[in-house]
Every structure is written in structure tokens, then in C-alpha cells.
């Protein structure tokens, strides 16, 4: 089979059926195809007979197939035989950075998270001597599964015939350009890229992100300059490798994944064969559902039980009424009976302040500037610990946490903390009248938890200070870090 006969419907390796041409460029064609064995979409590159770099592309694809970071596009197959070469890789669905920027710059933290994930993935590729060399907004995707994907590692450079003497520096600068684009909605190049306008310039130099867009945090402005704007570094060292970019962005808190609420189950529909063109959602019953107007055995048993309860209740009521009529209580006794106590709901008590708490660390603090984000009632802001090399905080200390100052001694009934969805957190609730660790008493604890966690003391605890204390941290992008998105403190209500 020659490349000239490649058309929709062609099957490669007796399993990959080409369906739709996505684009063509300089003798290389990208297809959306179907893996007929695994019944999933895949991306396939095919090449014209005169495409000059077939061997380089296939070799690069085979090398990329050994990469294990899930944030890099997976290569499934690559072959060059029978006059036809092809590369089969993962089909990625989602929004590219170019798509996300169609409405303007991203929130700074959002842009930083996307690039931080990409930098960590590319650092993994560089450890295996594989590079990208042509990072563009279309190559960074936020998938429909709420993950980051970097498209085209090694393969895109081979397709374009790109080489460089310093691939680490080229990819670090590419990451800096992506961060600049995410923060400003502009591309730091002489021409438009991916629909983004070129970045503005002053005195022949690109403006920094803070000069282009208001509200860009200073540390992100500095990281961008260190990666891609040498004239604006102000004598700070350059970020010359992807792992250095990843390290600079390591303290950016990862976003809470979007929760998925399944839709309500549809009413039962009689099964139809697939040949009729209708696929129905299968529902499993332990026994056939009861037919209309024919009560099941269980229903008859329940009805009999209810009737017996009613008869018993009537009998007990009649007997009680007879006793009261025969032996009326004296008025004084009736008046002395106390009314039943009313049920009082716990009340939410808002802390007056919060701080990151690390009494045993060198700086005796743990990102205190972020602590307010855990008590602002907003689900998309958060406080997080420093990154550690192990779940046990690198064996450096017994714990770190978030300390709440309630403003005055307060009775504590429950504390509900929303953690990250990564499993593995162990947390304790400590309460006391002093912010010293030795004065805070542990009143509740939970192990191996994630998401929304309720910490309830065995009995109501009282104190001005409430500490959520991490003794074990969950994994987070190759490191270990605790995150708290929201904290709600409940105090017993009063009648």
C-alpha cells in the first residue's frame, strides 16, 4: 500500500481504521481513526511518499512511547514498512490553551497550574533525552477529564525538522512563553500565534506580564521574566531547564478537580437489540420488577405488618386513656412536669483570623499568606502546606497545620474541613487557649482521608484557638502536600 492510496476507511496494522482528516501539512496528514480492537479513537499520522523525515519521525515516536508521565501524549504504535509509515497516538479531547484564551487572559493561578503541570511532564521527558522544541498554545490541553496533556513531545520536532544545541533551554523558554500567554492573552513573539496577538513592546523589549495585565502576582511575573524575558530579569538567574521552571512553580496549589454528579437514572425502558439502532442503559435487578396492579410478596408482608402496628397502637392508647381517666393526676403534679427540651442546632462560628502553623520549622510558618483563603467561604481558593519529599513530611517534623483564632474562647462541636481529593491525609483537631503547640489538646483525628472531613470531639471542647494538624500528607504531582479549601467551625447552639 502506498501513501497515495491512504483515504478514509483505510485500515492500518489490521486494526486502525482511518475516519476523518484533521489537517495536512508539508506531506504529513493527521487523522482521527478508530482502534477496532479496543474500540477507542486514536490519532494517526501518515506521510506522503516524498516526505523527507519519515525515519526520524518514526524513531522519535518509538522513543516517546517509552515515556510514562500521564501528562504526555501516549504513543501506541509506529511503523515504516510496505511503503507506508504511520504513527498512532492517543486521541486527546479538551480545550487547548489557545481555546481557553479566546475570551482573554486566564486567572493567574489557573495559568500557572497549567504550565506547572506541563513543566513537570517535560522534565520527565528530558530525563529520557526527549524534547519538544515547538511548544505552542495548541500543544497544551486541559482535557475533558480535568487533566493536563502536552501534545507532540519528540514527534512534533521530528515532523518539523527542528534541532537545537540546547534543547533544555528551548523548552524552558517555550514554557515561559506559554505562561506569558496564559497571564496576558498575548504571545511573546514577533508575530501572532494560535490566534493570540503579539505581545506589546517598550524600547524594543517585550513588556512584562504585569505591564500588560493588571493583577498578575509579582512572583509569576518574575518567573516569566526568568524563563523568557532576559532583559527584565533584574540580575536574577535564568530558568534554563524545564525542571527549573517546574521547581519555580512548585508551590502553586493544584485546583480542586471538578466534581461529577451523575444524572438521575432514567425510567426503565424495555431492552432493544443494537441492530435496531438504539442502545439503552442497562439496569440490573436482583429479581424482576413487580408488575403493575400485582403487589409483590414483600408488599403484602409490609401491609400486614403496618396493620398490626396500628391495632397495637390503638390498644395501647385506649389502655393509657383508661388509666388516666381512672387515676387523674393532681393539678400540682401536672404543673410540675417539665416541658420536653427543644432540639438546638449547632451554629456556625467564623474565625477572626487564620495562619499557616509550623512551630517546629525554621521560619515557624507554613504559607501564612494563603491561610485566609481557607476561611473565606469560597470553594476555589485554598491554603496549602509546603511541598515535602515524603508523606511523613520528610521526617523533619511531626506535623504542620492551619491555625484558626476564634477571637475568644469558643465551644467547638464540629469542624468540617474540605481537603484535596488525593487520598492519604491524616489530620488531627486540636483546641486550646494558647497558640503554643504544647497548649493545644487533640480532641479528634482522622486517618487516610480526603475531600470533606468532619472532625468531631468526643465531648464539646472549648478554646480560642483551633488547629487542623496534618500528620501525614497526600501525594501531589510527585511531591507531598496538604491542602485545605474550606473550613467551617460549628459551636453548640443555645436554647
UniProtKB/TrEMBL annotation:
SUPFAM superfamilies: Galactose-binding domain-like, Protein kinase-like (PK-like). The keyword Amino-acid biosynthesis does not apply. Residues 277-296, 329-365 are annotated as: Disordered. It comes from the Bacteria. Gene3D superfamilies: Galactose-binding domain-like, Phosphorylase Kinase, domain 1, Transferase(Phosphotransferase) domain 1. Residues 16-306 form the Protein kinase domain. The keyword Coiled coil does not apply. Keywords: Membrane, Receptor, Transmembrane, Transmembrane helix. This is Protein kinase domain-containing protein.
